[in-house]
Amino acid sequence: MATTLAKAADGTEAATHAARIEHVSKSFAGPAGQQLVLDDISLDVAPGEFVTLLGASGCGKSTLLNLVAGLDEPSGGTITTDGRPALMFQEHALFPWLTAGKNIELALKLRGVPKNERRGRAEELLELVRLKGAHGKRVHELSGGMRQRVAMARALAQESRLLLMDEPFAALDAITRDVLHDELTRIWHETELSVLFVTHNVREAVRLAQRVVLLSSRPGRVARQWTIDIPQPRRIEDAAVAELSVEITEELRGEIRRHGQH
């Protein structure tokens, strides 16, 4: 995984993009030979940009995210990122034998943060995700939404400029998901992170993103993109969100019909 830099106005090194995906393809071995999952994907994520990847189940969204994270290698093409990305999954993946704070401190330890600084930094991150005072709580004491907040704090502990999120709120109830949409939007604004967010929920994509990228059904290709100019903060029930969601849903249905998936 390479990092591309350019000179900023003050002479320091600045990233020209958070992620650049150039003509990326990915195949996996199957019973009938190589199965093409992603085909010639090209996509840039600008510094500070929030992009959602949307598509039918099995279109390769999570595969693409894993490639950007460096968890797998593309079969063709190149991916460059501004440093090492942080990754947040649908499941919180917290260590149940550690407290909320110690889960975050472990990420800080792996990043090389001195031991005497970890506790304070972990508490700062818990406060950022609105879990002040939760450092000593065990995972089983936390609700699903709280666990995802801790997982978000742990991802932020890596101090990456690019946050990759693979359907992180899909398992939550509607109200908790709505609250965490607000929290993620706030944190994104406060930290100026770049976010690449995978979802199959059209309204979630429109509510959160500056840009929505629709992938076709397998093999995944960039079918269409939308720039979202609806002012933030947005609500899932806002008329503008609903109207654009209808348009994108029709495009998604068309992609599914074209590829014979149900």
UniProtKB/TrEMBL annotation:
GO MF, one annotated term: ATP binding
Signal peptide per UniProt: none
CDD domains reported in the protein's UniProt record: ABC_NrtD_SsuB_transporters (cd03293)
Gene3D superfamilies for this protein: P-loop containing nucleotide triphosphate hydrolases
Pfam families xrefs: ABC_tran
Transport among keywords: yes
Domain ABC transporter per the UniProt entry, residue ranges: 19-244
KW Coiled coil (keyword) present: no
Keywords for the protein's UniProt record, in alphabetical order: ATP-binding, Nucleotide-binding, Transport
Protein name as it appears in the record: NitT/TauT family transport system ATP-binding protein
Organism: Streptomyces griseomycini
